[in-house]
Amino acid sequence: MASHTETDSARIKDRHAALADSLLPSGPLKHFVGGEWITGSGDNTFESINPTTGEALVRVYEGTKEDIDRAVNAAWEAYEQRWAGATPAERQQVLHMLADRLEARAEDFARLEVLDNGKPIIEAREDIELAVDHLRYFAGAARNIEGKTVPNGELHVQTRREPYGVVGQIVPWNFPLLLAIWKLAPALAAGNTVVLKPAEQTPASLLTYMREVEDMLPDGVVNVVTGSGPATGAPLVSHERVPKVAFTGSTEVGQGVMKAAANTISDITLELGGKSPLIVAPDAAPTDAAEIAVDAMFFNSGECCSAGTRLFVHESSADEFVDAFLDAIGQLRMGDPLNEATDIGPQVSRTEVEKTLHYIGLARDSDADILRGGGTAEEGILAEGCFVEPTVIADIDADNTVATQEIFGPVEVLLEWDDYDEMVARANNVDYGLAAGVVTDDLSFAHRIAADIKAGNIWVNTFNRLPAGQPFGGYKQSGIGREGAMETLWEYTQTKSITMDLGENQ
Ligand SMILES: NC(=O)C1=CN([C@@H]2O[C@H](COP(=O)(O)OP(=O)(O)OC[C@H]3O[C@@H](n4cnc5c(N)ncnc54)[C@H](OP(=O)(O)O)[C@@H]3O)[C@@H](O)[C@H]2O)C=CC1
Ligand SMILES: CCCCCC/C=C/C(=O)O
């Protein structure tokens, strides 16, 4: 069982409510379209819930197809009249200003993420720091969009990289502002304008950020429409005037996005689910490996697409490792995510709690061993909020649903290995291929794993590290495309070839 930070619910609720009052307006937050704050065509609103306290945090409007049409039109107008004509230096300057403004209010934004998503404050600060870094990275990248020349006898080919125009972007709730910036920064750097829909569970930080930076952006360059996936997201990803769509979320919804984009042959970037293996080599020191494994799995309370959810431990050190791993989990402190000492906050919603408990139930039904955790916590705020104990499941077949499907909660599946080839085959035997990790001092072993595991990101002696400039994305059903790096700029542009006949004497 993890230890607890403060759990007194009345005091925690008061603290959260006071902070919400200081950071958010009292009325519903509106859509940001064409540089204006609008209620949209419908009058449906819904609440975003603070998952720590279970209380309403903020109310937002549910966007309709009409609102999406209006946002897409505003984005095209901004593209044609302003942003397409902006020089790389002008785009760079805007991105730097966006970064500076976020950095200046970093603590407020970190706290908003805690209120809306439930992530521990120490991790929310990392989100904001990384978001600032991505804005600065893509500010620089905006100056590096170049074509090439391909001489070929009398033919001279020259290429240009041109933006798509309007990009539709959909982001999930686990890193609300960070993932919005991951998508906005490269799209804007490349010269596109954007219509973005945040997740219905976590709209607060992005809308507050838009309020903060609206004076820096030409009207319509960034448009944010809130709402649910079916009502608001679906008309955006299937829109006939949106030639490029970028989506982060579940593989299941990603498949729908891909089908919708097929209607208009829109280009897509998909960053989807994962079930990433972390491989502990025979030479790994058990306590060091345990520390990496805890971070790989329980970072962001387990709500991370790349989490190291399948832990392959070498038989020779399994007993020692498992003791160190369970001890390290015992040191994790679950509780009020605003508390500096908290390592594990609530899951984002009751739905996610139920989903996680469902998988733990399946493990029990399969006679697996629950070595730690396995339920919700019962004390004070932990019983009222969406808290699930850090859970470790052992003695389960590698092909059991619990060991192959994305759970997206704090649930680790422990698997032992002896034969290298068999371990690699098991590690690769899932539909996902987002990430993997290896703990070893043996460089040859690390390289072998890096070559043999079919995943887009391999971490050696670390996990979940994503500095700007590192291309991030998945193999197999974990996605299409790469985010966070120069590759991403190419995904927000298309190549035009200009072929000139220079005559016979060239
Ligand atoms: N790879 C990842 O990083 C993530 C994976 N997941 C996985 O997905 C599971 C369910 O979480 P959930 O939030 O429902 O994830 P979804 O994949 O449903 O949501 C991700 C985003 O897509 C939107 N969306 C949903 N349906 C559509 C649609 N038809 N067209 C366009 N956009 C749509 C959502 O809107 P809205 O939520 O407002 O309805 C949200 O903004 C989790 O338990 C987890 O396993 C979830 C989040 C991130
Ligand atoms: C500090 C690490 C941030 C991870 C961001 C990438 C995760 C994406 C996802 O879970 O969808």
UniProtKB/TrEMBL annotation:
The active site is at E271. InterPro entries: Ald_DH/histidinol_DH (IPR016161), Ald_DH_C (IPR016163), Ald_DH_CS_CYS (IPR016160), Ald_DH_CS_GLU (IPR029510), Ald_DH_N (IPR016162), Aldehyde_DH_dom (IPR015590). Residues 37-498 form the Aldehyde dehydrogenase domain. Keywords: Oxidoreductase. Belongs to the aldehyde dehydrogenase family. Homotetramer. This is Putative aldehyde dehydrogenase DhaS. The gene is dhaS.
